[in-house]
Amino acid sequence: GGAMSFLKRFPPPAEGVRHRQPDTEAVLAGRSLGAGTLYIAESRLSWLENSGVGFSLDYPTISLHAVSRDLSAYPCEHLYVMVNAKFEEAETKEAPMAEGEEEEDSDDDVEPIAEFRFVPSDKSALEAMFSAMCECQALHPDPDDEDSDNDYEGEEYDVEARELEQGDIPSFYTYEEGLSHLTAEGQATLERLEGMLAQSVSSQYNMAGVRTEDSIREFEDGMEVDMAPVVAGQFEDAEVDH
Predict the structure, then answer these.
(1) What whole-number distance in Å separates Cα of residue 11 and Cα of residue 54?
(2) Do 77 and 117 form a contact (C-beta atoms < 8 A)?
(3) Are 59 and 81 in contact (CB under 8 A)?
């Protein structure tokens, strides 16, 4: 039908197939597209119904993939794949939205999202399907994300990436870079923490000096003079001086 118009006839992929899973049902937006074979290939993810029509997804458009075992969310364990793209099938006429919602939906700044579920008849294949997805996804680093090291795997990478998109959190820095990116408030907090650390270290030093009357007196006498090296973290020197 018209809603299925994104299904095309094409030959099954032959090159770079990392995993092939026959007898796998494809479900888009809660509606079954039938049973077919899922091909996790290096170039793209393809599903072909047994009749020879199907669809392909490019890895850069796949924003998340995960093994779903939550049977309350969906009655069968499956590979869940979220795609930043629109498919006519996703807008099922069965669930009409309130008019207000539909208008909101057509806003330009709303990213199109489609949710696919690939349900293999053989549930023990899910881990292998997931791993193959991770490997292939790693071959397609996100061009927008220059900071990424491309060594993340699977869900963790995707979850972090989505949080980063939503919160404009700066990317991961080395320690020095991180210091230079701190806000003034962050700098002040850091200095306060360093000060507290130095204080607690000096009080440990004080405790250590409680062994004899002399060492307490010595420590207190030298306290004002030697506080600078203590704060700077040169405790050993301070000890040697006494």
Answers:
(1) 10
(2) no
(3) no
CATH of region 8-90+111-138, choose from 3.40.50.2300, 2.40.50.150, 2.30.29.30, 3.40.50.620: 2.30.29.30
**Interval 94-119: pLDDT, tens:** 444 444 444 444 555 677 899 999 99
**pLDDT at residue 2, as a whole number:** 44
- Helical (H) or strand (E) element with 181: helix 175-181
Looking at residues 219-234, what average pLDDT do you find?
51
d(CA 67, CA 80): 6
pLDDT digits (tens, 9 = 90+) for 123-161: 999 999 999 999 999 999 876 665 544 444 444 445 555
**Distance separating alpha carbons of residues 128 and 134, to the nearest angstrom:** 10
Virtual CA dihedral for 101, 102, 104, 107, nearest 10 degrees?
170
Neighbours of 106 (CB within 10 A): 7
CA–CA dist 182, 180 (Å, integer): 6
Cα 140 to Cα 18, 103, 150, 190, distances in angstroms: 14, 34, 9, 38
Tell me the domain boundaries of the chain. Answer: 8-90+111-138
Instruction: For residues 39 and 22, give the distance between their C-alpha atoms in angstroms, rounded to a whole number.
Output: 9
What mean pLDDT do residues 9-37 have?
96
Lookup: tokens for 119: 């349900």
Contact 233, 197 (CB under 8 A): no
CA distance 210 to 195: 23
> Which of 88, 94, 96 lies closest to 114, judged by CA?
88
Tokens 């199109």, residue?
112
